[in-house]
Specification:
Oligomer: single chain
Membrane topology: Single-pass membrane protein
Keywords: Membrane, Transmembrane, Transmembrane helix
InterPro entries: LEA_2, NDR1-like
Number of strands: 12
GO biological process, one term: defense response to other organism
Protein name: Late embryogenesis abundant protein LEA-2 subgroup domain-containing protein
Mean pLDDT: 84
Strand content: 35-45%
């Protein structure tokens, strides 16, 4: 037999075909694929932020228009007159005997705002201690109007004064002039046209000096403006 001509050379087997090339498909628009839940959450957040921002702009515009139309001014409180006929403090039983009458004015300077005074409590205070209180009649105050209050405090009550307050009382008794504070706790409503607001609780503080009447003679009382805290 004739020898095979290819048996003398090296044999490596059949050739291995090259690996197939991978084909990459890009999404339309060139962007990455978005998670539906994430996209929905982002859209909701954006819409909510836009709504809140729009509401804030609308509220601010309404407030500005109302302020320009109404031009609100603070109500002014004054103690115009005070009469003190008794103010005796007993250190033996810590009792204060008092007789104080006040004239107070409330000035509403607004042209388009009326005020309902639904409740008024007047508290008389000496040395940081309340010694009397009185509830005054509710009323309505119209535009650019001045109303007058007449709180009166008469009687006796337990008042615990410290050593410093007792020393101040002795000095004021020698001078015949006492430093007294009256606070007005109120619940009011504002009326703007046919609109009535919810109840507001302003606090009014009046610090004044009042001379004691002696032998039917009274000293000069200086009109005092009160502090208003909304």
């Amino acid at each position: 037999m004739a020898p095979e001509p290819n048996l003398n050379g090296a044999y490596y087997g059949p050739s291995i075909p090259p690996p197939p090339t991978k084909t990459y498909h890009r999404s339309r628009g060139g962007g990455s694929c978005c998670n539906p839940c994430s996209c929905l959450f982002n859209c909701l957040c954006t819409c909510i932020c836009q709504i809140i921002f729009t509401l804030l702009i609308i509220i601010g515009a309404i407030a500005l228009v109302l302020w320009l139309v109404l031009r609100p001014n603070k109500v002014k409180f004054y103690v115009t007159d005070a009469t003190l006929t008794q103010f005796d403090y007993s250190t033996t039983n810590n009792t204060l005997y008092y007789d104080l009458a006040l004239n107070m004015t409330i000035r509403n300077p607004n042209k388009r705002v009326g005020i309902y005074y639904d409740s008024i409590e007047a508290r008389a205070i000496y040395g940081g201690q309340r010694f009397a209180s009185q509830n005054l009649e509710p009323f309505y105050q119209g535009h650019k109007n001045t109303s007058i209050l007449h709180p009166m405090f008469k009687g006796q009550g337990l008042v615990l004064l410290g050593d410093r307050e007792k020393s101040n009382y002795i000095n004021e008794k020698n001078l015949g002039v006492y430093e007294i504070e009256v606070k007005l706790n109120m619940r009011i409503r504002l009326k703007i046209g046919w609109i009535k607001t919810h109840k507001i609780k302003p606090k009014i503080e009046c610090d004044f000096k009042v001379p004691l009447e002696a032998n039917g003679r009274s000293g000069n009382f200086e009109e005092t403006r009160c502090h208003l805290d909304w």
